[in-house]
Amino acid sequence: MEALDIPLARFALLYLLLLLPLYFLQRLKLGLGREVLISVVRMSVQLFLVGIYLKYIFAINSLLLNILWIMVIMVVANLNILKKAGLAVKKLFWPSLAGVACGTLVVLGVFLFLVVRPTPLYDARYMIPLAGMLLGNCMNGNILSLERFYSGLRKSESTFLSYLLMGATLKEAVHPFMREAIRSSLAPTIASMMTIGIVSLPGMMTGQILGGSFPLVAIKYQIMIMIGIFTSLVISMVASLYLSLPFAFDRMQMLRPEIFAGKKKR
Amino acid sequence: MISFDAVTIGMQGRILMQDVSFSIMAGEKVVLCGKSGSGKTTLLKALVGGARITQGVIRVNGLAVLSENILQIRQELAYIPQEPSVSQETAAEDLLLPFSFKAHSGKEPTTAQIEAVLGRLLLDPVILRQKSATLSGGEKQRLVIARAILLNKRIFLADEITSALDAESKNAVFTFLLESEHTVLSISHDLEWIGRCNRVFIIENGILREEK
Fold first, then answer.
1. A167 with B67: Cβ contact below 8 A
2. Counting one residue from A and one from B, how many pairs have CB atoms under 8 Å apart?
3. Chain A residues within 8 A of B40 when measuring between CB atoms
4. Tens digits of per-residue pLDDT, B126-153?
5. Nearest to A263 by CA among A87, A96, A109
6. Do A164 and B74 touch (CB under 8 A)?
7. Cβ distance B50 to A157 under 8 Å?
8. Does the complex come out with an ipTM higher than 0.85?
9. For the sheet containing B52-60, what is the strand order?
């Protein structure tokens, strides 16, 4: 069973559909038109390029190439995390990358070596999309947790200082801020696990069903992905936060102002 | 006890305080006055390692404020902010928070010690069962002071502490701070408090001078 291909002429209709939201945004004078157009063009070009690239990467199916690709997307995700969290790439590149790598690779390893076991184990058809799915979610979670943690510390400097004066170690003093950042960053993922299947059919499952898989197989993959996303998210958040501490605080245990990017981009 | 010796404080390449020199003896009650943004809070922060000293040296009990001494120095100091932040838990949990840290674990005060300290600050022990967030500004501040006393702190850094207090709380806080043996370095605009302190320093354009 194959998914129905969409002829190009009908595919172009999709872009006309965008006129509706653009009209409403224009009427509400939100000034988002340019941004929406740029993001749609970028999304289309990026997906087409990745489609072409994946065609070759699947055909070549080399371990080295797969690893290289995963490294590239990890670096891109990491740069995006720091930029969106308003943090200086120069100061926190390595700890944040290490955190993202921990979360993604541990779960990817479990998927490939223990659960799915494709042949070969590094089969690009499994390794690449699974890594991408995990990374995409880690990226969004880490943007939230790093942003909330460090902006919370900056905003409540006197509370943080009072913990240090009460005899807290650096880890004890940052703990309440870390707890709050992780709690609020995990909330959307927990909420989506609560309603998945009732309110929404997730993208991957829908894609698989449209692609011709049996719903039960698609569901198994979806459950695997949801558990994987949650696990990699928690590991990468906790690892990024802890690993960044030695880079973010000076010898007096005070937050270094230079870890924040000059101009905050949201 | 506390000495500033030709101290210049900078932050991100900008000089905030220049060539500040003064010393405070144990038990003195000192107030810093000046317009907002004049550097008063920076000066308090520098004492606990929260601002970069670019020149000169600050000493607390003879120890220079350097990374190797900072933990020992922080043991002596308590910071009482204008609006103490409290948790969503009960006042008792907030009061005993430091005893959950490794540094003080196993040294929890007895009920009798807690009640004696609360009594000195005219606080009813009943408040310990209330949620901290429901306490008045004055009660929160006295709770923070009680915590500092239980930790055996000798030096209090008080930042605009009287601005949010009702008359009764203000009186309790004033009486305690002025009559105790603690050293108090405060920031205030409150004329009554300024009048009752031993020494008054004025900060203007990053320069500090003592009012005689």
1. no
2. 58
3. none
4. 999 999 889 888 888 889 889 999 998 9
5. A87
6. yes
7. yes
8. yes
9. B14-24, B2-11, B52-60, B63-64
